[in-house]
Amino acid sequence: MHQPAPAAVAPVDPEERWKDWCAGRRAALTAATGNLALVETRWLPAGDRPDADAARTGCPDTVTVTTLTRTDPVTGEPEHGLRFWDSAAPALTAFDHVDVFDYDPAWVLEAAYTPVPGARRVAFEHIRDNGGTRDLVVPGDIAVTVDGRDYTLSAFDDDGSLLLVFGDPTNDDSTYGAGRFLFVERTDDEHRVILDFNRAFVPPCGFSDQYNCPMPPRQNRFHLPVEAGEKLPVFRDGFPGQH
């Protein structure tokens, strides 16, 4: 019996996928616990344990309270804290959009990835630590050539994903001053990754001063402008953004 030929599958347009990514970013930013909604990060005294339900007592119905933990950079002991999110936060109600560069396929780069055995840790300065550093796990090296110059980049482990924190000459001009973030795309080949800078994004501290974002280390600073990805958040009514 003659079998019908399978229907042709239309190729996926990378620019359309990028537009979907932009829409997803907006949905995440404007969620009740999105970056724009964070109004307070409260770190507790040593030894205290957070109680989100107790902390929420007396708060407006628009407020959500969650817990978080980090490591003290001096003692190495865990620090516990609370985060307060408000779906009526001024930044959220004043938010309009995030400016972006036009999609540019030239900024989709292949890179070599070399895993490093063991839990290698690299010092990253954080925006709210007054020049101090925190060690983050960097499980491999990313080698890429940009505009004829070779780079060996450090992306740290972010709950199983590789997160690149990078800087370039657009910072403090058309993009967020402290640098931008990019999730590294793994491939079927463990030694090959994709850096799609069209998906570079403003870090959480660009939307709320209650985040403590890592800053780009020297090896992650590019010599030429990376004119791809997100630029800056735009607010209505003269609301001052975190630029």
UniProtKB/TrEMBL annotation:
InterPro entries linked to this entry: DUF1684 (IPR012467)
Q: Name one Pfam family in it.
A: DUF1684
Protein name (database record):
Uncharacterized protein (DUF1684 family)
Question: Which species does this protein come from?
Answer: Streptomyces demainii
